[in-house]
Amino acid sequence: MKPVLLVIAHGSRDPRHAATVHALVRRVRSLRPDVRVETGFLDFNIPSVPGVLESLAAEGVRDVVALPLLLTRAFHAKADIPAVLRDAPPQLRIRQAEVLGPSPLLLSALERRLYEAGLTPADKSSTGVVLASAGSTDPEAIAVIADIAREWRHTGWCAVRPAFASAALPRTEDAVRELRALGCAKVAVAPYVLAPGFLPDRIARGAAEADVLAEVLGPAPEVARVLLRRYESASARSLLRVSA
């Protein structure tokens, strides 16, 4: 039998967050009906990750792929999630998948959201884009966002600048003003976040002077495909922990 895919989301007091996570999981299930997909939250929402793991163990499940629903490999992927998984019932054999980003598919999803917000491919050469992420205190995560912005610039946009809603600079509004100063005819903000919530709302406020604000990535089909690729890669790797 294929390992159970456990999608691990951070959780939020904002009900839009959990609703978006569940919508993405439904899309994943529709793409791979042969894989059992469960959802667990680290905080604020239910079911909790420990609760899901206990339930799976009680059912007799043995193999699980735990997939962090994260775009960068920062504190949650490096510390929080491994700690939770180490406390799982000992009969579970668990593999932790890689985070979703970076991936060319996620760039495709970002462009999809920009076009849905009103841009067209003909606008690319005259439009500057702010790649707006939640932000992190982890230098590796910040560097990844900067790398993605540089890569995306080479696909034809006038310019692409990274921005952060917390923990790092520049803020979205500062990046918007920089692109205006560069002479871009239009400025668009592309939130590099998976679900609505406090920090995405801050990004939206920072986009007040932009011409276009895209929606969050949410349950975009490209995101679901990346998620399944990470699942397949993890399924083929050695176990994080093997029970005695």
UniProtKB/TrEMBL annotation:
<dbReference type="GO" id="GO:0016829">
    <property type="term" value="F:lyase activity"/>
</dbReference>
<keyword id="KW-0456">Lyase</keyword>
<dbReference type="GO" id="GO:0046872">
    <property type="term" value="F:metal ion binding"/>
</dbReference>
<protein>
    <submittedName>
        <fullName>Cobalamin biosynthesis protein CbiX</fullName>
    </submittedName>
</protein>
<keyword id="KW-0479">Metal-binding</keyword>
<dbReference type="InterPro" id="IPR050963">
    <property type="entry name" value="Sirohydro_Cobaltochel/CbiX"/>
</dbReference>
<dbReference type="InterPro" id="IPR002762">
    <property type="entry name" value="CbiX-like"/>
</dbReference>
<dbReference type="Pfam" id="PF01903">
    <property type="entry name" value="CbiX"/>
</dbReference>
